[in-house]
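Good day; I would like, with your permission, to put a structural problem before you. A protein sequence and the structure tokens that stand for its backbone fold form the material at issue. Thank you for your consideration; the sequence and its tokens are set out here:
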Amino acid sequence: MEKGTQFIRVLELYSGIGGMHYALKASNISFEVVCAIDINPLANTLYNHNFGNRAKHIDITKLDAADLDEYKCDLWTMSPSCQPFTRIGKQQDVQDPRSHAFLHLLNELPKLSSPPEYILIENVQGFEHSLTAHSCREVLKRVGYNFIEGIVTPKELNIPNSRCRWYGLARKDSSVSWNFDDIRKTSFKDGYKNEGLKCLNDFLENQVSLESYFLADKLMFRYGHQLDIVKPTSTNCCCFTRGYAQLVQGSGSVIQTSDHENIADQFEKDRMSLRLRYFTAREIARIMGFPESFQWKELGISEKSMYRLLGNSINVNVVSRLLSYLLNNHTSG
């Protein structure tokens, strides 16, 4: 199939709020999303608001090989549930019911008459050591895919966020010699337009009321020592999870709005004077590469719901580079 003369037909599995769709747009690939599939009704509503009615509420475990063949797609993108593999979860792996949909896809893939030419998979760091990942490698190899995998963080694109994620890339072209080192030398070599590591201030909102985002006294005094505190001038922040603003430890950073130089000293003297606040959903969306045109307030979706939806999504900038490499790189050796 000649890229540039024909659309890549895409099946978005676990499509969520459309991070993969935005990544496809940013990758400059000619594509058509044939169908986006997710089991979360709110995510589907948001997806359809921003992209038109492509998202469907479908239980992936109900799709068989014949159903998947009917889509006639060249590329499958997927970000399966990460909860069975997260470091703060129970790490039940294949025993976790949330793994069943992905394991079902792996079971059906060898039965397809026309499997996709390309597959991109995203999950949390640590997934690579799971039994599910082992099954993934075995099935893709058996079906004839040329498969590579690696860990990537947005900081490799000079984005100030440590959202480390595992990525698996598969293609049917077995003649291509490729690896993640090559991706870093080509697709990631220019970073963020060679501007150097950006600071958080480049992503913050300036013209909105932020009073409702400040941390409550009770939380500060009870759990304050567990907080990851950053400044607008910081060049990193922790990964934002679906539990942001609900859980304290390991769910994402909070930002200092006072001008105190030494956070640790001032925290011990008068922690409330640091004026700590949560990041807004728009700020997190920016850090994760979603464009300003991405809408949710028009649908009346709350910040709490957006934190959950964004926490389950992907970094658009990272995935767009991986998709460009996956679909455009045909250099051997």
In short: The beta strands are 8-13, 31-38, 55-57, 75-78, 118-124, 146-152, 165-171, 229-230, 254-256, 276-278. The CA atoms of residues 48 and 111 lie 31 Å apart.
